[in-house]
Design a protein that fits this description.
This protein has 276 residues and is mainly alpha-helical. It has one domain. It is globular, with a radius of gyration of 19 Å. It starts with 22 loop residues before the first helix and ends with a strand.
Length: 276
Amino acid sequence: MDARMHRGISFAQSSRCYAVDPADDRSCEGAQMKSETRKRWTLIGSMLASTLPTCLGQLAWAADPQARGPERIEHIVIIYLENRSFDNLYGHFPGANGLKDAGKAATQTDAQGQVYAILPPVMSEGTKQPDKRFPANLPNAPFLIDRYVPIHEKYADDLVRSYYRQQQQIHGGKMDRFVAVSGSALTMGYHDNSRTALYRYAERYTLADNFFHAAFGGSLLNHFWLICACTPRFDNAPPAIRAVLDDKGNLVKDGAVTPDGQVVFTCPTSAPVRQI
């Protein structure tokens, strides 16, 4: 039901999440692209809203009642939640592999490897100043966002989730640099969504608590991998949107297109993008 991003780590991004780092603009998610993307997903969302209930209602009952096993399934509907980790919405779902299993992965360190005494502030949308609705002394642990901002309200910019930055966040499997790379405590926030329709779906159908995303980064590349297990290419992408790496493979400049032409983040194109 949710493309779980990282075990034990909760993102409050757009992923669930995030306060956008300026580098994300270099990765082609400027204001115009965000506006176009929001319009596109608003349209898709309205279409899904009108069709999903019907599909979900038919899933269990429309098949031949005499059939047994998988033969009874006529449709499979996947609810793909963009830019949210599993723990952001379902970290406390009964029986799920959630926040209670996070362990040491929930403790965040700064860029020098020092454990935060308290988390950095949650940043406000647009101003890049601390969001006064959140306390300035949040402990270094997952926290309930709803104590400060209701689940239906927008509380911050999107958090960092680009292809290369996410690898920095994962930090070789330690999972301890999400706050440092995003520059906001919001990445450790989660919601109580037990009163939402999505929670009802999780109770009635299948909640994939151990389904991890197929590729580093945001939704665009993972959408491709969900459907076709493939990566689009932009071989003649302009330098402005290409990532730059040093001779050891370390990130010098973030970008939506890898040095060898693979599209790994949302970006506008001035030439055809082909699949591989």
